[in-house]
Fold:
Amino acid sequence: MSTVTNMVVTVTTTTMAKALLRSSPRKRGPRNSKSSLDSRLRGNKRMELAALYRLMAWLSPAYPVGAFSYSSGIEWAVEAGDIKNAETLREWLAVMLGEGSAFCDAVFFVCAHRATAAKDDAALRAVAELAAAFVPSKERLLETTAQGRAFLDTTRSTWPCAALQRFNVAWDGPVALPVAVGVACAGHRIARDTALHAFLHALTANWISAGVRLIPLGQTDGQRVLAALEPDVGAAAARALKTPLEGVGSAAFRADLASMWHETQYTRLFRS
Structure:
């Protein structure tokens, strides 16, 4: 009788143990965790690809903001002899990236992205107001605000999002291009650092395109200049990410004067 009882207890205990193992969250965990992780990775990959697609569209020369018609004073610098070949073009743009309007635009981009992500309308208004007031000349104001407005109008029509609508309510003044792009990137959850590098690349490439047409340079020389400026773009982005709005500033006086003197230049191809 005792032996039979022991056998029953052993069988019952073994059966219960197997059942517990089959239903144990600890046993199920790794399989479910792996599935969840794979799902998250696929989701992140889709988001990265969507971000890349949108950045390439928004910052393409084909995006209808009219970037091709502005030179930020480079046209005057070519006529004055400050820029006469690929090397002098690279030197001019390196200053604009390190100490000039490109660095300021990078700071405005970062601050606009941060304020939009935090849904801080007061901070976003402060960025938009300062960015519009910070340009050194009438033509530079036209350059950044005409492109900013065109970017917002096109992006609202093609890639609408809540952040763009909220910005439209929060700010009704002139919109600088870096602010418009920063708001759109944050609204579409595009990583700030990646978007900033893409924005500065597009800005630099547009200036080089103006130089290629004005000096003139060959297309390959233009690409050499773009390649040579890669460290300058990276340094400007890194510095902008650490610069608060109240720390923004420019010291590219010759470039600022060029944008002013361009206003009375006799023969002009560009609007700035």
Residues 23-48 form one domain. The radius of gyration is 28 Å.
